[in-house]
Specification:
With about 350 residues, this protein is of the alpha+beta class. About 35% of the residues lie in helices and about 25% in strands. The structure holds adenosine-5'-diphosphate and magnesium ion (MG).
Length: about 350
C-alpha cells in the first residue's frame, strides 16, 4: 500500500529537502485574496481585514491515527485535510489556508508523498483552500502529519461550544455511526488478509460506510444552508469522537443538561446492516464510534419552523437545566446516562 506504483521508487534523498518541498507543492496555486504570501518565505502572510481568524491544528501519527494497511495514501491526504476543515466549519467559519507539516522516514519513496499530496490537493480544490506552507523533516520511524488550517468568519458569526441555552433544540447533520462501521469492516478484512494473503477483501455492497471512513466531508453546505434560512446556531461542535462525547462537551461547557431521543438519531440503512453483522447496536456506533465529522448544534426553539424541514438536519433532543443530567431516552423506555466512552474504550471492549 505504501508504494502506489509498484516498480517506481524515487528515494527521498534524491530530491533533498528543498527539492522535495518544491516537487510536492509546485502545482498548488493560491486563489484566496486573503493569502498574501503562501509558500516560499519564512512565514505565510494572511489578511482577513477586520474579520476574526480561526486556527486549528491536528497531529496524526502512523499506527495511532491511521493504518496504511487499509488507508490508501491519497485518502489519507484527503482525510487529514478535510477533518481539519471540519474544525473551522464547526466554528461557523470558512476554511481558507492549510499548512502541512510532514515527518517521514526513508521507508517511504517520493511517490508515496505524491499520493498524499494528490489527496490534499483534491481536498483543497473542493473546499477552495490554499496550501500556504508547512514543514518537512525526516523521521526515524513512520509517518507523521501535522496540519494547521486557518479560516475566517465575521466576529458576530462565530459559534462556540459553551453558549447553548436551556430549552434549545439539539440538531445533527447527516447520519451517524457509519464511519465507525466502515472502520470495523476495514479492520476485519485486514485480519482476513493477514491470515491468508490470497484472500480478496469482501467489501462489496458497503461502499457508503467505507467512503464515510476513508473520505469524510466537512459540512460547509450546512453552515451555508443555515445562513440562507437566517438561523445562527447557539452552540456547535463537529462530531469527531462520537455523539456522546460531543453532546457532553456542549452540556458541560454550557453548564446544562440534555435529553437525546434514540429514535431521532439518524442512522443509514447500511450502518444498521453492518452493525447487525458485527453484532453491535447501531446506536452504540452513533454514540461512541466517531469520525463522522457531522455537525452537532443547538438552535433557539423559535427557529424550529425554519429548521424542521431542512434536508440533512435532524432534531434529536433538547437542552435542559444542569440538574436534569445528560440522558439518552432509549426506544424501549429507560433513560440512560450519557457517558463519554469514546473511541478508546470501544476498542478495548472488542
Ligand atoms: P524554513 O527553513 O523557514 O522552515 P522551509 O525550507 O522549511 O523554511 O520551507 C520553505 C517554504 O516551503 C515555506 O514557505 C514553508 O512553509 C513551505 N513548506 C515546507 N514544507 C512544506 C510542506 N510539507 N508542505 C507545504 N509547504 C511546505
Ligand atoms: Mg522548515
Amino acid at each position: 500500500m505504501i508504494d502506489p506504483t509498484p516498480g517506481k521508487r524515487t528515494e527521498l534523498s534524491s530530491l533533498g529537502e528543498f527539492g522535495l518541498i518544491k516537487h510536492l507543492t509546485d502545482s498548488f496555486v493560491c486563489e484566496q485574496p486573503s493569502t498574501i504570501k503562501g509558500i516560499g518565505d519564512d512565514a505565510a502572510v494572511i489578511d482577513y481585514g477586520d474579520k476574526v481568524t480561526l486556527v486549528s491544528t491536528d497531529l496524526l501519527v502512523e499506527g495511532v491515527h491511521f493504518d496504511l494497511a487499509y488507508m490508501p495514501l491519497r485518502h489519507l491526504g484527503y482525510k487529514c485535510a478535510t477533518v481539519n476543515f471540519s474544525d473551522i466549519v464547526a466554528m461557523n467559519g470558512t476554511p481558507r489556508q492549510l499548512f502541512v507539516g510532514i515527518s517521514v522516514s526513508n521507508r517511504f519513496p517520493v511517490e508515496a508523498l505524491e499520493e498524499i499530496y494528490e489527496g490534499i490537493k483534491l481536498a483543497c480544490k473542493r473546499y477552495k483552500v490554499d496550501l500556504a506552507g508547512g514543514d518537512t523533516t525526516s523521521s526515524v520511524h513512520g509517518l507523521f502529519l501535522s496540519l494547521t488550517v486557518t479560516g475566517e468568519a465575521a466576529k458576530e458569526d462565530v459559534v462556540y461550544r459553551n453558549t447553548a441555552k436551556e430549552n434549545d433544540l439539539i440538531c445533527v447533520t447527516g447520519d451517524l455511526g457509519s464511519a465507525y462501521m466502515g472502520l470495523l469492516l476495514l479492520e476485519r478484512e485486514k485480519k482476513v488478509f493477514e491470515a491468508d494473503p490470497g484472500m480478496q477483501p469482501d467489501l462489496a455492497g458497503f461502499d457508503y460506510i467505507l467512503e464515510r471512513q476513508l473520505k469524510p466531508e466537512p459540512r460547509t453546505d450546512i453552515i451555508e444552508l443555515l445562513k440562507t434560512v437566517g438561523v445562527k446556531p447557539t452552540a456547535m461542535i463537529d462530531i469527531s469522537d462520537g455523539l456522546a462525547s460531543e453532546v457532553l462537551h456542549i452540556c458541560e461547557d454550557s453548564g446544562l443538561g440534555c435529553r437525546i431521543f434514540e429514535d431521532k438519531i439518524p442512522l443509514d440503512a447500511m450502518t444498521i446492516a453492518a452493525a447487525e453483522e458485527f453484532n453491535i447496536q447501531p446506536v452504540t456506533a452513533a454514540m461512541n464510534g466517531g469520525e463522522d465529522y457531522e455537525l452537532l448544534f443547538t438552535i433557539n426553539m423559535n427557529d424550529f419552523e425554519k429548521v424542521k424541514d431542512l434536508e440533512g438536519i435532524n432534531i434529536i433532543g433538547h437542552m435542559t437545566e444542569a440538574n436534569s443530567g445528560v440522558y439518552l431516552a432509549t426506544n424501549n423506555g429507560p433513560l440512560i446516562q450519557i457517558e463519554a466512552l469514546g473511541w478508546n474504550h470501544m476498542r478495548e471492549e472488542e
